[in-house]
Design brief:
The structure is a single chain. The protein has 325 residues and is of the alpha/beta class. Helix content is 34%, strand content 21%. It has helices spanning 46-56, 71-82, 133-138, 154-165, 188-197, 206-213, 218-227, 267-281, 285-300, 312-321; strands at 14-17, 21-26, 39-44, 61-68, 85-86, 90-93, 100-103, 113-116, 141-145, 170-174, 201-205, 232-236, 242-246, 251-254. The strands form two sheets. Strands 1, 4, 5, 6, 9, 10, 11, 12, 13 and 14 form a ten-stranded mixed beta sheet that branches. A hairpin with a 4-residue loop joins strand 13 (242-246) and strand 14 (251-254). The longest helix is centred in the last third of the chain and has 16 residues, at 285-300. It starts with 13 loop residues before the first strand and ends with a helix. The relative contact order is 0.15.
């Protein structure tokens, strides 16, 4: 296709590719969903939230995804523009509704999610022939997710984008394991392994790295990710913090920042946006992880996700205080 990137002389700091939807979060905490009476409406979807998080930190970002051709889809375009995220590669899919996600909020560690993505989510209809490969190749960082591998044509589009980029810059694979999105979860690992061949950074929690590598112990899993072809492996260990290891033999293990958790669902996306910011800045592993942990902790202290993403001043204040106050 003709590149929509032409005439845009400055490459994006970050392009993400993956989920988008509307988050409908209860405005009461500790209340089961059947008893919730009021909800807040927010932009959602992991890859989209990462683009928002990086934009809040001053980065020029865009997202590749698809919505329904409906009012919720139009809302998502308005929200993206409001957050300063380029929406030129967000296109409608006639006949499919924009996904909606509900959650329950039981702090500090129970946040059940309910995905409404039937009969099929539009973001799984991303087609390889519609990708702006020039822009993907030139971006400072390109970010893909495991969900994008779960169904066709998104799977082929994701792998085609990775193959075209060919590690020309920092390419992040968010392992993003959601078993309910896979018709056969047992078939996921070969696709994860193929994606790892084309990426320079892998990010996941213990469940996700086990799906990708078959290994759960953090340091062994990080090594397995490096052996699969990445240059940096980031393993989230929950209460034990985060471990980052690179192929130069350097590592950093950083504890979580103390925080009163209100809703932990957006913390990983804030972490991802900050991770991209730190990589673009050229920081060392420990500084990147500390900044990303702080960004995630700030969002965990807030109800919403996308609109909760922190500014640079907020992250710095949390780092200076040694906690989210």
């Amino acid at each position: 296709m003709e590149s929509r990137y032409e005439g845009n002389s400055m490459a994006y700091d970050l392009i993400t590719m993956g989920r988008i939807g509307v988050d409908l979060y209860p405005l009461q905490t500790g209340v089961p969903l059947p008893q919730v009476e009021t909800f807040g409406k927010f932009l959602g979807g992991s890859a989209t939230n990462v683009a928002v998080a990086a934009a809040r930190l001053g980065r020029r970002t865009a997202v590749i995804t698809r919505t329904g051709d409906d009012p919720f889809g139009r809302y998502l375009h308005e929200a993206l523009r409001g957050f300063g995220v380029d929406d030129r590669w967000v296109t409608p899919v006639p006949g499919l509704p924009t996904p909606v996600t509900f959650c329950e909020v039981f702090p500090p560690d129970d946040f059940p999610l309910y995905f409404y993505r039937q009969p099929k989510a539009p973001d799984l209809e991303i087609d390889a022939h519609e990708l702006d490969l020039d822009a993907i190749h030139e971006a400072g960082i390109f970010w893909v997710t495991g969900t994008g591998l779960s169904e066709e044509p998104s799977r082929t589009a994701t792998l085609a984008a990775l193959a075209h980029r060919a590690k020309s810059g920092t390419t992040v694979f968010d392992l993003d394991w959601r078993p309910m999105f896979w018709q056969d979860p047992a078939a996921a690992r070969p696709f994860y392994q193929e994606a790892l061949r084309h990426t320079t950074v892998a990010v996941g929690n213990l469940d996700e790295v086990e799906v990708a590598t078959g290994v759960r112990e953090p340091r062994k899993a990080a090594q397995a990710l490096l052996d699969a072809g990445v240059e940096i492996a980031v393993v989230k260990q929950g209460p034990k913090g985060v471990l980052a290891v690179n192929n130069k033999g350097e590592s950093a293990e950083v504890p979580p920042l103390p925080v009163n958790v209100l809703n932990g669902l957006g913390a990983g996306d804030a972490f991802g946006g900050s991770l991209c910011h730190g990589l673009l800045e050229g920081w060392d592993l420990e500084k990147i992880m500390r900044h990303a942990n702080a960004a995630g902790a700030i969002v965990a202290s807030r109800l919403e996700c996308s609109s909760a993403m922190p500014t640079p001043d907020e992250v710095q204040a949390a780092l200076t205080a040694g906690a989210v106050l």
